[in-house]
Amino acid sequence: MQIRNQHMIKIPISLRKIALFFPAFLLSIAVGLHGCVDQDFDEPPGGGVESPPPNTTIMELRNMHSLGNYEEITEDIIIRGVVISSDLAGNFFRQLVIQDETGGIEMRIEMTDLDNIYPPGRQVSVRCQGLWLGDYNGLIQLGGAVTGNGGDRELERIPEPLVESTIIPGTYGNDVTPKEKGINQLTFDDVSTLVQLNDVQFANSELGQTYSDPSFSTNRTLTDCNLNEIIVRTSSFATFAQEKLPEGNGTLVAVLGVFGSTLQLALRDLDDVQLEAERCGPGGNTVTIGSLRSQFDSGDALISDGAIEGFVISDYETGNVTGRNLYVQDETGGIVIRFSANHSFGLGSHIRVVVGGQEMSEYNGLLQIELPIGNGIDLGNGTAPAPRTATIAEIISNSEPWESTLVKIENATISGNSIFDGTLTVQDGTGSIDLYTRNQASFSGTAVPTGEVEITAIVSQFNDPQIILRSASDVKGGSTGGGAVNESFDQIGNNDEVVLTGWVNVALKGSRTWLGKVFDGNHYAQATAYNDDAQEMETWLVTPEIDISETPSFSFESAKAFWEHDGLSVWWSADFDGSDVAGANWSEIEAVLARESDADHAFIPSGLIDLSSLTSGKIHIGFKYVGSGPGGLTTSYRIDNVLVE
Hints:
This protein has five domains: 13-169, CATH 2.40.50; 179-277, CATH 2.40.50.140; 289-380, CATH 2.40.50.140; 388-480, CATH 2.40.50.140; 487-644, Sandwich (Jelly Rolls), CATH 2.60.120. By secondary structure, it is mainly beta. The chain contains six helices and 44 strands. The chain is elongated and about 105 Å long. It has an eight-stranded mixed β-sheet. A seven-stranded mixed β-sheet has the order 22-23-20-19-18-21-24. Strands 32, 34, 35, 38, 41, 42 and 44 form a seven-stranded antiparallel β-sheet that branches.
C-alpha cells in the first residue's frame, strides 16, 4: 500500500467555491457532521441496520478501470463490502478499504478519524454514480473528481460533505476472514483485500530495525521459510513506526497493496502481527534429492516444503551448461536446478537450495526445478561425491535413478567427430551412448582423443539418455594427434574479442586485435585498421596446435570490405610455443584470399591446402593482418569456417 505524504493535501476547487459562496450552508453541514463524528466514544455502538443492497460486485467495478486512465461512473452503481482498513494507528491516512466476496477497493476520502464511523468489520454501501475510478501506480482507487491536465491529472479525494450520502454505513462487527495464502501465491486480484501469511518472518537483514524511519515511509522485507519475499510498508506517522521489528516467526495479517508491479503489505496495527515462534532457517527441513525424484515419479510435482543440500557437479565456466543451470548431487541422487538468472556456484561448490513451494518439471525428459536466484546458498567446504564407475549398459538401464549424477566409464572409445562439438558416440563393448557438447562450450573445438579413454561425465537426458562433460580434461588417455580445428566463430559475440581455447589473438603493433562480428546471423572474425590511431598495425590470430600427420588438409574462407590494400596473409610455424608470436619462425602459405576485384563482404574459399607438403609433425597456422591509420591502409578483412581435417 503506497502511503501518501500527510502534508500534501489538495482541496478540490469545488469545495473552495462552496466555502466562498455558501458559508452558511457549509456551517450547517459542519455542525451536522460534527454530530456524526463523535470523537469521545471509544467503541462503536452495537447492531446497526443493513446498508443498501449492491447491484455490482467490487471486482466488477474494478474491471471497469483501465490502468493509467480515469473513468467517470455515470450509472447508478452500488457496491457493498466490509471495511478492512483502520486509521486508528495512523498507517492509513484518508483511505478506506472495503472488500466483498469478490475483491476489494480503496477509496480516497477527504476526512480523518474514519475509524470512528467506519471501523474494521462495518458493512458499508457506496453509491458510485458521480465518482471516478483511477489508480496510483497500479493501485485501483475510487475518488471524487479528477483534476489537472495531461500527465498531471490526479484523482481527488471524495469531499467530506459528500461522504454521508455516498458511503452508507450498515451493521457493525461483521467478520472478515483473511485469505490465507503463501507469499508466492498472492496476485493482483488479491490487492485491497485482507490477507494472512503464515510461517513468515522479517528477513535477517531487517532484524534490529524499526517498522519505519522517523522521517519517511519505509519498506521492510518479510520472508517465508522458502525465501519468498514481500514488502511491508509502514508510514512514519504510524503510532508503531518506531517499534522494533519482531525477530520471531509466525502469522501476519495485512491489507495487500501494490506499487507498480510490486505487491506490498500495510498493517492496521500491531495486533495483526504475531511473530513469536522460533525462526526458521533457509528452506526449513532438509530433504534428499532422491526423495524429490521419487515424489515426482509418483505424480506429485509440487514440493511442499524443504531444501536440498549437495555438491555442484557441473561447471558453468566452461559453458557446457548455460549460466542459469547447474547439476547438483547428494548421496541419494542428482537433479538440475534452473535459476532465474546466471549463478556463480562453481564446480564442487557445497550448496543449499530452497525448493519448498516450487514445482518440478521435465524438459525433454530431464527433471529440473526452476527457482529464484536467491534460493541458492553457498555452504562452504565439503566432500564432493566420487563418480560411480559403471559400464554404458549399466548407465542406460539406470538412466532415471542415475540422472544428473557423475559416472566414470573405462575402456571407452569416442567417434563421430574429430572435435567435441555436437553429438558424439561413446562405446565400451557393453553398449553405446551419446556424448553431447554445446557449441558454446570453451572446449567444443578441442580435438577428440583416439583410442581407448577413461571418461568422467554427468548422466543427462535429451529424450534419450546421454552424457555431458564438464571440460575436456574429463577425458583421459588416448591420443589427441595434435588437434584438429573446425572453427566458425559462432560462440563469439558481435564486437567481442576473439577468445577461443587453444587460439592466440595478439597485437604486435598497435593495440587492436581480431574481433568477432555478426552479420545476418553469420559469425566471423575481423581485423581492420579503420578508425585506428596507430601508424602501424599488426595483429595475429593463431590456431591451436595441429598434427599434420593426422589432419593434413586445411581450408578457410576470407572476405574484404572498403578496399585500400592487401592486408591479410596466412603463415605456418613449427616452433611457435603457444604465446610468443614474434619469437617464432613463420613461413607463408599460398592460399586464395579475397582481393580488390572481389565483391565487398563476399566470402571467398581458400581452396584445399595440403599441409603435409609443407613439413611433418606439429604446426600452428597464423592469420596475419597489417594496416595503418588514420587515413592509411584500412581494408577490413574477415575469416570464417577454418577447417583442418
